[in-house]
Amino acid sequence: MRLEAHLRARRAEGRRLLVPYVTGGLGAAWCDVVRAVADAGADAVEVGIPFSDPVMDGRTIQEASQRALELGATPLGIVDALARLDPGIPLVVMTYYNPVLRAGHVRFASRLAQAGVDGAIVPDLPLDELDGWADAADAAGLETVLLAAPTTPEDRLRAICERARGFVYGVALLGVTGERDRLAAEATEMGRRCKAVTDRPVLLGVGISTPAQAVEAAGAADGVIVGSALVRRLLDGGGPDDAASFVAELRDALDRA
Amino acid sequence: MDDPSRRAGVVLGPPGPEPAPRGRFAGFGGRFVPETLVAALDELEREFRAAWVDDAFRAELAGLLAGYAGRPTPLTECRRLSDRLGVRVLLKREDLTHTGSHKINNVLGQALLTRRMGKRRLIAETGAGQHGVATATAAALFGFECTVFMGAVDVERQALNVFRMRLLGARVVAVEGGSATLKDAINEAMRDWVATVTDTHYCIGSVVGPHPYPWMVRELQRVVGDEARGQCAALLGGDPDVVVACVGGGSNAIGTFSAFLETPTRLVGVEAAGLGLETGRHGASVARGVPGVLHGARSLYLQDEHGQIREAHSISAGLDYPGVGPEHAALAAAGRVEYVAATDEDALAGFRLLSATEGIVPALEAAHAIGWLAREAGGAVPAGATVLVTLSGRGDKDAAQVAERVGDGVAP
């Protein structure tokens, strides 16, 4: 339980948690980006394994996924690269279910665990369909993060928080990933609802784009996930230094709040 | 729009079997969607299950199918084509429905459900444009707002249907991502739905997607098979020897097959072989797909060894999809339905043959079924057999594309 234990320990220090998202395979320097954001104050890093049909993702991550695939990214290739990375904080991979199914539950879970990956997020694998994967992940010691959504009814929210490992990913708006001008009204309510039913770390993600939005969202939960705002900087030609300075800005804002 | 004089003619047979719990058809199906959509799918499942045994709902749907969509559609005996092929060909004429394809059957049912759920906006994906036109039509009829997602490639090759949808008041969004065809249109519709699910119903056009869609759309298309079986009984005194239908996602096929599953009739689904199965440029998910998960369902998909979905290819936009409905995957695994494939060339041959011999211009999708039968009559389909073919739609939408392709050489 390294991911959850790590996040709980950081939370206990009074720290607002920050998990940046980086698309695996996006450019030759993507591993350096992961290291750089880890060093810039992330509490864990979420690495996206690109899929051809990412239905939970908006334009930025769609484009990043497509570009990574064109550059030859493969699921197990990314996992192998992560094995050599050792960023000093937990790593969580995010991918869609088909690549997991194609690799095989047990094979994929054990490869991730062997690579030192601590958790996995599979956004198109809801609670009701979780068993095959979660059994394999549990057996491999891999923590499966579950998503809770603004539309999730109360009893289901409890079941999700109960079954989640690592942390609960509260979807901070009705919609897919991507930057927004302001924090959605659903964000703080999502954080409040999750916090009311679980002691697990609760992170809000989707649409959180700026340091100010991160502070506002983190105030309703234990922390935030920031993806598209970071990935856009990479798509625009930014490298590890640009990624690090953006994450440092987020870190600084969260620490000062 | 409800014409009682015709309603009596519409056959809404008894509800068919539900899939196993969690929407399973022998291991295929399910509900693999972002958490945001789960509550809406639960609601849709509840509402459909209740509506489908509700006499008032069924009567209203039957009335719309009769007075608005023009059902029942005829069964046409093809005398000249039968002489040519040496088999007896009967066509179930879905091309004669309002909007020109079987898609309207499903859409009218889902529009009634949308109203029942208190939603005011419909979204849909479309490949050839037939489902988009049907959805835009129902939206106009019910006074709903409507957005149709269509791959940018399909917007190009189906310009007539794009105009029709806009005329009907729908917003048509050209989807540029991925292969810019039907698969990507579904992705984009799902993304819209994740953001709008509280007031919007996603009107999926085929027996694909998360539970309850494969079951619900099959039930709403059963009318095709139920009518056809009754018409065959009246004409033949029994069931046909063979039933043939084209399969993209597979809604016209499953709607037809569902009436014959418990009979000895041979059932044949014709997938798109595109440029040929050996070229890798096709849409034959049963023939060449492997189990996987896309668009919410476990089924057979064209994909690479890493689980990335491959682009399909077909001359017909409606069959240009790298997957197939989960119930088809189950029927294939059980061996109850034979899945075969027809190439672009077979489809073009079928398109010209039916036009020239019967005066019926088929949609390119349905032309795959005709083309396969023309190729296999006297072979895989024995001489003298009686064959029911579902003509899923009419070919007006494809005339320009075929003209461009074959030029003046249209004679079969």
Fold and architecture overview:
The complex is a heterodimer of chains A (257) and B (412). Chain A is of the alpha/beta class and 257 residues long. Chain A has an eight-stranded parallel β-barrel, surrounded by nine helices. Chain A has a single domain, classed as TIM Barrel (Alpha-Beta Barrel), CATH 3.20.20. Chain A has twelve helices and eight strands. Chain B is built from 16 helices and 14 strands. Chain B has a six-stranded mixed sheet, with helices on both faces. Chain B has a four-stranded parallel sheet with strand order 7-6-5-8, sandwiched between helices. Chain B is globular and about 55 Å long. The chains are: A alpha/beta (257), B alpha/beta (412). Chains A and B meet through α3, α5 and β5 of A and α2, α9 and β11 of B.
Topology of this protein?
The complex is a heterodimer of chains A (257) and B (412).
Chain A: H1 2-12, E1 17-23, H2 30-39, E2 45-48, H3 59-70, H4 75-83, E3 91-94, H5 97-103, H6 105-114, E4 119-121, H7 131-140, E5 143-148, H8 154-163, E6 168-171, H9 185-197, E7 202-205, H10 211-218, E8 223-226, H11 228-235, H12 240-256
Helix pairs in contact in A: 2-12, 3-11, 4-6, 5-6, 6-7, 10-12, 11-12
Chain B: H1 4-7, E1 24-25, E2 28-29, H2 35-51, H3 55-67, E3 75-78, H4 79-85, E4 88-93, H5 103-116, E5 121-126, H6 130-142, E6 145-151, H7 152-157, H8 159-167, E7 171-175, H9 182-196, E8 200-202, H10 213-236, E9 242-246, H11 251-257, E10 266-274, H12 285-288, E11 290-294, E12 297-301, H13 326-334, E13 337-343, H14 344-358, H15 364-376, E14 386-391, H16 399-406
